[in-house]
Amino acid sequence: xxxxxxxxxxxxxxxTEHRDPHHxxxxxxxxxxxxxxxxxxxxxxxxxxxxxxxxxxxxxxxxDSGIFTAVVGEQPISYKLKIVEGSGYEWETYDxxxxxxxxxxxxxxxxxxxxxxxxxxxxxxxxxxxxxVSGVHFAVWAPNAKRVxxxxxxxGWDGRVYPLRNVSNSGIYEIFIPGLEENEKYKFEIKTQxxxxxxxxxxxxxxxxxxxxxxxxxxxxxxxxWQDDAYKERKASMNVLNQPISIYEVHLGSWKKAxxxxxxxxxxxxxxxxxxxxxxxxxxxxxxxxxAEHPFDGSWGYQVTGYFAPTSRFGTPKDFMYFVDRCHQNxxxxxxxxxxxxxxxxxxxxxxxxxxxxxxxxxPRKGEHPHWGTMxxxxxxxxxxxxxxxNAFYWINEFHIDGxxxxxxxxxxxLDYGKDYGEWIPNPHGGRxxxxxxxxxxxxxxxxYKDHPDLLMIAEESTSWPGVSRPTNYGGxxxxxxxxxxxxxxxxxxxxxxxIHRQYHHNDLTFSMVYAFTENFALVLxxxxxxxxxxSMINKMPGDYWQKFANLxxxxxxxxxHPGKKLMFMGCEFAQFDEWSENKSLDWHLLEFEKHQxxxxxxxxxxxxxxxxxxxxxxxFTSEGFEWINCMDYATSIISLVRKSNQIDETLIxxxxxxxxxxxxxxxxxxxxxxxxEIFNSDDFKYxxxxxxxxxxxxxxxxxxxxxxxxxxxxxxxxGMTVLKYKG
Length: 728
Prior knowledge:
GlgB_N_E_set_prok; glycosyltransferase; hydrolase activity, hydrolyzing O-glycosyl compounds; Glyco_hydro_13_N; GlgB
């Protein structure tokens, strides 16, 4: 055995336990000579091809172990390895262990501090060129591993072939493998301290195999030519929260199905169908239920294993770029449903990643959601926070996403969320608030809004936690919008009652205005309200067939005149009767029937009204944009209100009747003397209504009513809404 061979290191290489294989393998110098060590378990013979001096140097097998060595001279050389298999197959390759680290000291420092917001450009798999040699750089964080290798078709999935080095004992392992190209499948093989072998998908992978396969796939995000500069310039010039926001929530796998199995349309095909529809319907944004890679269709994307990979169900990352680009070219924003609250227990995912609770907590009282069967991220670990915050930047920077709807915020804020006594651990002060998660949100939102002030960060937060949508420098969590779950629950409960009983539940209709301006609220009728036995929106409505549709029109009308941005789940706009299922397309055939056509037209016109009438969105978040006229008329279940902008001639009055009794000569107090005109009525014949509308000019008269000096006498439709505009 050559004297420069370190037997201890060789034993660690052969035992697949070396944490820095580059220290032994590759070219090294000792006592004035340079030598090359290589480890190829399947090799029968190896040579060093000296590219500097154009000669071949035979390598010596060390104890027939698969380790080969050769002295190459007194000067360093540029070289390749020639490998000859026992079968006679041979090939040449640059030596993966001949390259300096790509991960630099600054990368390690920032990542350890939780502030490397572009760490996704360093960790994962990336096509790069070093010293004129092209290949793939692999890097992964696994600080507690005994050994990390990258495996794939390129090495027969043999973890002995390409062990990675632990860069400066940082816990980040890396290797550059020359000659690899796009579309290579790979995983990380991790040997734990207990000598178990784990095969893990890459947490930072940009693409993955189609389920049920779980390998990561090398892909190139570079080269897509974006065409959305005009859209980005328009967006940057405006205050995004002081604009109309009407969101169409979509599950890409079931909006429409492709013919045959598995039934998924490509991102590009979806773009052509969905964007035209959304634009025609008048929505301003599409919110996509989670499209990060996930193994189980029935999770709807909320159990993520590939946070940096658009799911391969619908195509490649560049196909998804095309989808977003086409949305922007049509002036439609794209919001992603984002899941930083928990992750699944799938063996190839983040759980027990390096043989320890790396991304989660060791103690299940802190690290597991018992009712979801998922793991909770450890927000007290800088590298975990960096993983998530960098992931948010990734979608925004690389895919031009306009906003993130953050799922299950309450489950992150409360240590006892969904847990019984003894299933959780209080914070250091004995409370149930998760201080680490609070700090995470403040860090996330402050840095995202600093770099992207036109972003929409939306919290699905179901409790009364204060300041969710208030700036972090005022003690808030820093979100831009918060889902108004209180309004949704109260309103749907109110609608469920037969109109004759609604007078006893009037508070459910009006209570939301008590707290309406404590947050920047979005009113939502989301996917969660039309699944798990809750019934579709149309089936929540009481009454006969006509009344169901009239009720739903009145409900949508009230939602659109109520302060707050808007969100509606797909299928609700044409009154789908069945609950939503991820396994089938929406019931588009219902549009063959007049009532569903009329409902679709109604929602389309409601969106147009919302976009055209500044008062409906100009001041959603303060009382300056809203006044009750009469919110106390519980006996008739009629409410009336004013929506205002900064222009008097844009003032609107909305009157909504939640009983099937039409009202003629109904008096309401109005804010200004003069003329009013009905601009919208849900009871119009074209929407399937009974035609109780107000025609011509309506003139106010001097009479004190509803504590106002001017009064109008109007018709109020049954189970309907009328909207009047002040004409001066």
